[in-house]
Every structure is written in C-alpha cells, then in structure tokens.
Amino acid sequence: MGKWGKAKMHQDDLLSITREKFNQAVKEAKPLFCYFSVTEACNLNCKYCGSDSKKPLDNELTTEEVYDVLDNIAEAGTMAVLLAGGEPTSRKDLLQIARYGAAHRLRMAVNTHGHFIDKEYAWKLRDAGVLEVKVSIDGLEETHDNNRGEGSFKRAIEALKPGVELKEIDRIARDYISDNHYGKNFGHSLGHGVGLSVHELPKVSNKSTYKAEEGMVFSIEPGVYIPGYGGIRIEDLILVTKTGYEVITKSPSASAEVITGL
Ligand code: SF4
What we know:
Number of helices: 7
Strand order of the largest sheet: 1-2-3-4
Bound molecules: iron/sulfur cluster
Number of strands: 12
Order of helices and strands: HEHEHEHEHHHEEEEEEEE
Largest sheet: 4 strands, parallel
Shape: globular
CATH superfamily of the largest domain: Aldolase class I
Strand content: 15-25%
Distance between the termini: 78 Å
C-alpha cells in the first residue's frame, strides 16, 4: 500500500475513533443544569417578557406533576435546578417544590423579580433548601423601572438588603439541630459580635434584639455536646455586607474543634 493509501486508512481510523467517542459522550451526557419554568403567571408586565400572562395558565402543572418532573430531572443525573417562570414566587407551593427537589439531592435555586421576598420569605426559602436566589435587575433605577414598571427597582433591591433579626438566625440553627435530634445538646447562643474584644455585642441568641447591619462582624458557632461522650463546635466569622454576608473565616470547617470526654 502506497503512502497515500496508508494516510487514508489512518484518517478513517481517526474518524471512527472520534465518532465512537462522540457517541459515547452523547450517550452518557447528563443535563447538569435545568431551568424549570414552574408557572407563566406574573404580576408585572415587562416590555420584553415572553410569558405575557397575569394568571397561571389553565393547564399548569400541579404540585404532584412538578414532583414527577423533578423525579425525572434527578434521575437524569442533573445537579442543579433553577425554578423560574413567569414569577415562581407567585406559586403557593414553591417552598414545597424547593423542599422536594432538595430532598432529592438537587441544588435548588430560584429566579425572581424579588417583589414578594421579604425577610421572612427569604428564610423560608433557605429552610426549604434553596441555595441561591437570583433577583433580576435590568440596570439603574430608571432603566429597570422603564422596563418593568415604576417602583420595581426599589422592591427588587429591598429583597437583597440585610436587616434580618439575629434571633431569627439563632432560631434557624437551633431548628436545624433539633430536627436532627440534638436540640437539647445545643445549650449556648449561636454567636456574638467580634471587634476590639473577642466577645462583643451584638449577641446572636434567641433573645437578641439586634438586626444584621452592614459592617457588623459576628461569629456563628453552633455546638453539640453529649454528656459523657464529647462535643463539637464549628465557628465561622461573618461580615454583613451591603447586599448579604461574607464568611471571613479562612480555615475549612473540617478543622472543627472536637472535644471528647473519652
Ligand atoms: S418579571 Fe419576568 S415573568 Fe414577570 S413580566 Fe417581567 S420578565 Fe415577565
């Protein structure tokens, strides 16, 4: 076989190998991310919107049907689901849906205009296992309101502001530990302010009267102590920022302090 014949064979090999690899990749490919529009309903009427529906459609999925879809999504190996719309928070069962997805090991997120997200609802989303909330901002106030209607910018920004009560943060941690059957073993406050001294106000406890404000630094240190056995406490330092918070502790949680009595 001449030089060109060999080259042709080599080319055919390469093509068949490439084709085989491609087919294998397609066969095993998993949709890692899913954008799931759970409703067409929305109270706004943005200029560029494709939903164009004030009310839910007649044939929108029921809660059970949404669960079925989430089952399929989880089965396909998908890792993250963004619940969107329309406006997903207009669905009364959104928290149930998020909880169902999170229980099926999906990383749940919500895409929203933010109008219905106040402090209480934000914590409910968090409790339901939502790890990320994306609030749509089109630009500065004039641009945003021009697209979405007067006052929309302020309402979206409100959804992003700090201001959560510190006793609420303590409650969330306490509920989580109680739900996992160690409530009676968590006997101290969740955290405290840090500044010139190691222990300062504000206290992060169930009696705290403080709200999170930009610039505050406090510890979050839930602990579980079992008499006669030992205990564990994981401590992080939190800086409250203009739009949320930043964990400023650099050491990984795996280095948590473990004290055993054995
Ligand atoms: S907020 Fe979203 S769903 Fe609602 S009208 Fe605007 S673009 Fe459409």
